[in-house]
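[agent] plan:
  1. take the single chain provided in the ticket
  2. run structure prediction with default settings
  3. attach structure tokens to the ticket
  4. add a short note for the reviewer (M.T.)
[agent] executing step 1
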Amino acid sequence: MLDLTALHDFIVSAKAAAYVGNGKKSLSYRPNSHDLQVSKGDFAYLDSYFGGTDFIGQEVVYLNNEPVWAMNYYGRILEPENIDAAQAGSIIKESLSLLYQEKRFLGGFKQQTPKGLYIDTSEGDVSSFKGIEHIEQGGLKVYELLYHGGLIKN
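[agent] step 2 finished; step 3 output follows
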């Protein structure tokens, strides 16, 4: 039986080590994808995405080589004259790093940075969830990402 607490803890540590932690890119499994992998014990994590300014991707967690959890996401710059992908990425990494230090990746989070206000809202838990993250500058939404995911059952 899958230990949801162990799964949650692994997801948080893998997310912190991969994109947010500037993890080492691995061999691309699909043409032109950007892939990041993290393994610990019986768990393995793969984040595979396409694009940069506007991007889409999927994170999958495997337990003993069987997929048990996944999350899909799509993000995009809404106001390219106000923010670029590098600036958005900097705000996201700074904010998510703080969220992961709280040992969580869901439940909502708000972080004011010098370059913009990061806001994440979500509902659900590790077994089934959906959410939106966005960045505001002066009250204007300049970036947005939609995500959803949960357990995979055979």
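[agent] step 4 note for reviewer: The longest strand covers residues 66-77.
[agent] ticket updated
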